[in-house]
Task: structure prediction
Amino acid sequence: MIKLTDLKSDQAVQGKVTSISVAGAFLEVGAEVQGFVHISRLSPRANRVEDALVVGQEVELWVANLDPAAKRLELTMVRPIRLKWGQIKPGLRTTGGVTRLEKFGAFVDIGAERDGLVHISEMSDGYVRDPAEVARVGDQVEVAVLEVDRAKRQIRLTMNIGPEEYVEEEEDEEELPTAMELALREAMEGSDAEAPSQNDLESRGRTREVQNDLLERTLSNRVQTSAKSDTNEG
Result:
């Protein structure tokens, strides 16, 4: 048996109608107390409870309010709003259930206050003559928001979407050493006889003088080698 403290607002539950009154109906949902759904929370809406529910009927409901201390559990047959108007923006991708088909398109429940409309031209990347060719009531479809009109409470959707793009972060390219840095590296990795050891250097300033000396000698050797090569070719 489910404890009321284990239930949460908007949680979905399965209920079986046990009794009906003018104000609403009591249902067994497997909790320590029966839940009550008020006539204003029936779906579809009805002027009389018996027009929407009968004793023994099993239905899907959601927790509206609960008070464990008072042992009270209020239920609703109206699906809670999953997406508020401020959350619905162009480009939003989600999944919804097809609730109605018309000649001009399909209505899809994406968990908002109102169903969104997928126009027949947005149901496929090809020509669609009849919405029933693409979807049926009850189908779960992936859609993206095209446009939102909060004043008119309208949501335009599209089913013509491709896979989400994945952009791989580019790795930082290794910076190539300059000609001067290459010459210095070559000088430092040159003959051990010509390169003084670190222990022989008295200070950082002395180290820099030796590096500059090695650099000048390396560049001088390159120039002499290049000159000899040009003379031999001539």
Summary: The chain has a mean pLDDT of 82. The first strand starts at residue 12 and ends at 20.
